[in-house]
Amino acid sequence: MTTTNTILMEESWKKELQEEFKQPYMDNLRSFLRKEISKGKTIFPAPHNIFKAFDLTPFEQVKVVILGQDPYHGPNQAHGLSFSVPEGIKTPPSLVNIFKELRDDLKLSSIPESGNLECWAKQGVLLLNATLTVQAHQAGSHQKKGWEEFTDKIIHLLNEKKEGLVFVLWGSYAQKKGAFIDPKKHKIIRSVHPSPLSVYRGFFGHRPFSQINDYLQQQQQKPINWV
Q1: pLDDT category, 7, cuts 50, 70, 90?
Q2: Most buried one in 25, 55, 150, 165, CB count within 10 A?
Q3: Mode of pairing for the β-strands spanning 166-170 and 187-191
Q4: Active site residue: 27, 70, 152, 182, which one?
Q5: Distance (Å, rounded) from C-alpha 169 to C-alpha 111?
Q6: Does the structure show a pLDDT above 90 at 5?
Q7: 135 phi and psi, to 5 degrees?
């Protein structure tokens, strides 16, 4: 059985989650992932990137949470941050729409060329997927295996132990997952998902980036440099 000491995760998060790693559902999740790998199935992201969101955004540095659903399931796309892709990888459609809203919200001349959002993560934006792994080319394949319970715990910890965070919930899935977040303690930004299927039903024009920075400044916190 894997012990907490052998888990490769940023130390502040490991401390907060040490009891969670001992729960039976985590043992079941580890067993599931080992079996999938032993069958020769390709799992994304690579093992060293599964907890990358936590490595780049330590617990005490979290200012904003942008909640996604699954990692990307195409080759070379997923690298542990919701909506983000590594440098040099074509920007996926949902992220293109996020960038279009960023451009219009902040009155930029163009959208970012790179889909790598590590610069956001390093400033305190936790880019959290509800499910942290996926089988190649099989969207949703690792749902209901334990990851959702783990990421629910993360949101609960942030909601309970911190104040003045911004939670960005795009789409009905994220909104249901974050339904318990206390609006008296935190700012919650909701809209439809940036997917091409829903983006014109209220995503464009809801100005999340300026809302986030306005709120952070009200909390005497440094705003995010989105570009």
Answers
A1: confident
A2: 165
A3: parallel
A4: 70
A5: 22
A6: no
A7: -80, 140
